Amino acid sequence: MSTPVNITDYTKIPTQAGVSPMTSDQTDESFWSSNPISSFFIDTYRNVHQHRESLSLSNPGSVEDLNKEVARDVFLNQYAFTGLRADLNKAFSLNPAFQTSHTFSIGSTNLPSYAFSALFANDDLFVQGNVDADFSLSGRLNYGWNKHNISKVNLQIAHGQPTMCQLEQDIKGSDFSINFKTLNPTFQLLNASEIFTGVAVGSLLQNVTPNLALGLEVLYSRSQSGTPADSGVSYLTRYVSTNKNWIFSGQLQANGAAIASFWRKVSPNVEAGIETTLQAGMIPITDPVVGTPVGIQPTIEGSTTVGAKYEYRQSVYRGTIDSNGKIACFLEKKILPTLSILFSGEIDHFKQESKLGCGLQFETAGNQELLMMQQGLDADGNPLQAPPQ
Amino acid sequence: MFSLPSFILSDESKERIAKVWTLTNSAAHYGWIPFILYLGWANTANKPNLFNLLSPLPSI
Amino acid sequence: MSGIFNVPGAAPTKPKSKFEEFKESPMFTVLVNSVFFVAGVAFIQSPLMEMLAPEL
């Protein structure tokens, strides 16, 4: 029994041989996908997109973190200090994280004698602020709009100094990262040829294979209106081994620096890294008799630093040695659940100089539960189970 | 009497913009830390008082 | 022999050897640091580095 053909359903009506009516798929399509020119672009985009998905690439991480494992985790640039310091950290809540910190320091050239900082972080907001004894403020705010978009603001305000304000937008795709950054942007609507002053940086890091990422960073800066603008391109690359236990990264920067770094996780608690920096520059040659400059000569300064980080349950040890004769180490040891000691030392063998820093870090709590937790007890005073590793 | 193109700012509005800029600047300078402390205070269960927020000593 | 009492440029300068000339050129820094980097990577990747990691 054939059902009678519904006359309003045109798709069932046979027409000329070889010319079939539009299928239901086609009738669903919009003007843009049905007309040949735009559909060509859409199809090409789809093919490229499908091909990209078939490669199953992961996100390469942000450009800022290109050599994070070496420069920020293993090396002690971020940690080293001189003089004596004491940090009093007070935690009020863990989730959302809220803590304040008082830092006292003496005998240091770069640490202020007193600084107060506060931090608040929940799932999509991170705010941090730091005020020192001279009432200069540095603050940062990160806000994640969704999984792929993070906006960042960095502020530095001090009395008698120009305010620094950096706005940043991070875009994280499935296999690429884009970052736009601008420092102290001002727009002058009067002058059409010099609309923008400040620094603007745009960067892109794209995974081309599951292991290899290539990137590009474009910098444009004009410090004052009236001065010529400066611009440059940096090239970036990062290779992560398949089982993620070693990483190579390389940068060719617009200012003439080449940086290569290598990181390896030797064992679960030991990491090692090496970084070589070559900085090309120009120095003027002066005439030996008259003392007037007669030309310029290219120079290259280079240094190589090797370092290792040992992480134990109660302590972290970092040590580096570099080709300019500097040996440095940074030790951090938890001697009580609420007290850690820090030691930072550096010896420059070529210049016969040394630096020394010692510090104490106290952890205090803003409520009963956290206080007990810091002692390794739960709210009722029973010993906490060790968190599963 | 001719009028300036709308994108050219008069001296008055330039002054006003500069004033707004300095105001924002000092608002950020003085308000940043209190803002964080307020955020933290509002999101912490036991609502610590101001002295507890600012003192480095344990509050119990 | 300080340079003060000599007419600059008049003092007989020893002709530099090829090696010394190379040692002062920027290429030397590049070469030395590249060698350091390669040697460092080789060391970190070698079983020697694993021996420096304590067994826990």
TrEMBL record, chain A:
<keyword id="KW-0653">Protein transport</keyword>
<dbReference type="GO" id="GO:0045040">
    <property type="term" value="P:protein insertion into mitochondrial outer membrane"/>
</dbReference>
<protein>
    <recommendedName>
        <fullName>Translocase of outer membrane 40 kDa subunit</fullName>
    </recommendedName>
</protein>
<dbReference type="GO" id="GO:0046930">
    <property type="term" value="C:pore complex"/>
</dbReference>
<dbReference type="GO" id="GO:0015288">
    <property type="term" value="F:porin activity"/>
</dbReference>
<keyword id="KW-0406">Ion transport</keyword>
<keyword id="KW-1000">Mitochondrion outer membrane</keyword>
<keyword id="KW-0472">Membrane</keyword>
<dbReference type="InterPro" id="IPR027246">
    <property type="entry name" value="Porin_Euk/Tom40"/>
</dbReference>
<keyword id="KW-0496">Mitochondrion</keyword>
<comment type="function">
    <text>Channel-forming protein essential for import of protein precursors into mitochondria.</text>
</comment>
<dbReference type="GO" id="GO:0005742">
    <property type="term" value="C:mitochondrial outer membrane translocase complex"/>
</dbReference>
<dbReference type="InterPro" id="IPR037930">
    <property type="entry name" value="Tom40"/>
</dbReference>
<dbReference type="GO" id="GO:0006811">
    <property type="term" value="P:monoatomic ion transport"/>
</dbReference>
<dbReference type="GO" id="GO:0030150">
    <property type="term" value="P:protein import into mitochondrial matrix"/>
</dbReference>
TrEMBL record, chain B:
<keyword id="KW-0813">Transport</keyword>
<dbReference type="Pfam" id="PF08038">
    <property type="entry name" value="Tom7"/>
</dbReference>
<dbReference type="GO" id="GO:0008320">
    <property type="term" value="F:protein transmembrane transporter activity"/>
</dbReference>
<dbReference type="GO" id="GO:0045040">
    <property type="term" value="P:protein insertion into mitochondrial outer membrane"/>
</dbReference>
<dbReference type="GO" id="GO:0030150">
    <property type="term" value="P:protein import into mitochondrial matrix"/>
</dbReference>
<keyword id="KW-0472">Membrane</keyword>
<keyword id="KW-1133">Transmembrane helix</keyword>
<keyword id="KW-0812">Transmembrane</keyword>
<protein>
    <recommendedName>
        <fullName>Mitochondrial import receptor subunit TOM7</fullName>
    </recommendedName>
</protein>
<dbReference type="GO" id="GO:0005742">
    <property type="term" value="C:mitochondrial outer membrane translocase complex"/>
</dbReference>
<comment type="similarity">
    <text>Belongs to the Tom7 family.</text>
</comment>
<dbReference type="InterPro" id="IPR012621">
    <property type="entry name" value="Tom7"/>
</dbReference>
<keyword id="KW-0653">Protein transport</keyword>
<keyword id="KW-0496">Mitochondrion</keyword>
<keyword id="KW-1000">Mitochondrion outer membrane</keyword>
UniProtKB/TrEMBL annotation, chain C:
<keyword id="KW-0812">Transmembrane</keyword>
<keyword id="KW-0472">Membrane</keyword>
<dbReference type="GO" id="GO:0045040">
    <property type="term" value="P:protein insertion into mitochondrial outer membrane"/>
</dbReference>
<dbReference type="GO" id="GO:0005742">
    <property type="term" value="C:mitochondrial outer membrane translocase complex"/>
</dbReference>
<keyword id="KW-1133">Transmembrane helix</keyword>
<dbReference type="Pfam" id="PF17112">
    <property type="entry name" value="Tom6"/>
</dbReference>
<feature type="transmembrane region" description="Helical">
    <location>
        <begin position="25"/>
        <end position="44"/>
    </location>
</feature>
<protein>
    <submittedName>
        <fullName>Uncharacterized protein</fullName>
    </submittedName>
</protein>
<dbReference type="GO" id="GO:0030150">
    <property type="term" value="P:protein import into mitochondrial matrix"/>
</dbReference>
<dbReference type="InterPro" id="IPR020266">
    <property type="entry name" value="Tom6"/>
</dbReference>
<dbReference type="GO" id="GO:0008320">
    <property type="term" value="F:protein transmembrane transporter activity"/>
</dbReference>
<dbReference type="GO" id="GO:0070096">
    <property type="term" value="P:mitochondrial outer membrane translocase complex assembly"/>
</dbReference>
